[in-house]
Amino acid sequence: LSDAEAVRAVWLNPRPRADSVVFAPDLRYAPRRVIGAGFAIDGDYGPLGWVGLTDRRMFHDRVEGALRGTLGEFRQDIELSARRAYENPEFEASPIVGLTYGHEQVRLFAPNGDELPRSTIPDIREVVLRFGWEVPFGPRFGLRSGAVARRWLGDPAAPGVTYASGLAARLTGSWPAQRRTLVADAEATTAYIRATVVASALLERGRLKLTPTLRAAWMNEQAPPHLRLPLGDRDGFAGLRIGERLGVAQLYAATDASWGLFGPIDAVVSVMVGQSALDAGRPLAGDWITGARLGLGAETPVGPLRLQYGFNDAQRNLWFLRLGRWF
User: Fold this and answer.
1) List of long-range contacts for 11-16, beta carbons under 8 Å, 24+ apart
2) CA distance 75 to 127
3) Which residue, 105, 103, 56, is CA-closest to 79?
4) What mean pLDDT do residues 241-249 have?
5) 225 confidence band (pLDDT: 50, 70, 90)
6) pLDDT per residue over 73-104, tens digit each?
7) Phi/psi-derived region of residue 6, left when phi > 0, alpha when psi is between -120 and 50, beta in every other case
8) 318, 44 contact by CB (below 8 A)
9) How far apart are CA 106 and CA 157, in angstroms?
């Protein structure tokens, strides 16, 4: 029952009887509908918020539905999805379907870090339809695979390309005891091919916490700009703007080291190295860069807070300020 999402709590209600104990279990079921919201603020990218609704019986007693919307300065989307409702989805396969409408402006930068005017950057509107199967392999692994179709509205995502269809898959692995995670994505369509792998872990000893991360990505040159990854992805790179060094092949490694000072305040040092290539045939041909961020971090009621000064061996430096978990 501890793994069943439909059950929120179990009260055993023990009562003495003669020389034994009698239990009268009382199941407290999770609510049918759950509404959630969150936000994050980045000193360079700006604010980003989301709101979502999950209904365990949205369309039928056996169908679970979810509605989620994201609102930010450069990205907005709304997604409706449905899957079969199970009390314990960790051990039962389910068909899934999802429909997304999104609008995204892809930030572009000059070599010196100056952001290009909004009138010159890609402005992409798309409709994405996904359907397939979600197959769990126990509590640690899960595979989601199926078909994907994308339709770009207005300006095409790539010259002369307004539609793409194909297959997509995502493999996730989680080891809670060791605090390790693995996420691998692959997508092959009529317009592009892309694949990413991200592995991370959390190591603790006393007041010291280490969080190493390794990311590798590859896609062909036909991949639209909003599906390409900037160096460092969501967290960016020390000394660079969020979204810089957008490429088709990336290799990146980083480690966050934090030391508890007092209360929720930590001293945080982040070191990183990576490259982002523009030639899919030469995935390691990008300019390698090494950087670091030094500063403070804290856990707050609305999420983690990070204030760091970043610099790199390309003679670039920039403050990094973020409140909340980026998504």
Assistant:
1) none
2) 14
3) 103
4) 92
5) confident
6) 999 999 999 988 766 656 678 899 999 999 99
7) alpha
8) yes
9) 11
Tokens of 296: 């403070």
Dump pLDDT digits (tens) for 263-310: 899 999 999 999 999 999 999 999 999 999 999 999 998 889 999 999
Give residues with Cβ within 8 angstroms of 279, minimum separation 6. Answer: 221, 248, 249, 285
Per-residue model confidence as pLDDT tens digits over 209-218: 999 999 999 9
Which CA distances in Å does 92 have to 3, 137, 142, 143, 168? 12, 9, 10, 12, 20
pTM above threshold 0.90 = no
16 burial class (0-12, 13-18, 19+ CB within 10 angstroms)?
exposed
Name the amino acid, one letter, at 297.
G
- Ramachandran category for residue 222: left, alpha or beta (phi over 0 → left; psi -120 to 50 → alpha): alpha
Instruction: Determine how many CB atoms are found less than 10 A away from the CB of residue 50.
Output: 16
pLDDT at 62: 80
Question: H/E/C letters for each residue in the chain?
Answer: CCCCCCEEEEECCEEEECCEEEECCEEEECCCEEEEEEEEEECCCEEEEEEEEEEEEEEECCEEEEEEEEEECCEEEEEEEEEECCCCHHHCCEEEEEEEEEEEECCCECCCCCECCHHHCCEEEEEEEEEEEEEEECCCEEEEEEEEEEEEECCCCECCECEEEEEEEEEEEEECCCCEEEEEEEEEECCCEEEEEEEEECEEECCEEEEEEEEEEEECCCCCHHHCECCCHHHCCCCCCCCCCCECEEEEEEEEEEEEEECCEEEEEEEEEEEEECCCCCCCCCCCEEEEEEEEEEEECCEEEEEEEEEECCCCEEEEEEECCCC
According to DSSP, the residues that pair with 308 across neighbouring strands are: 295, 320
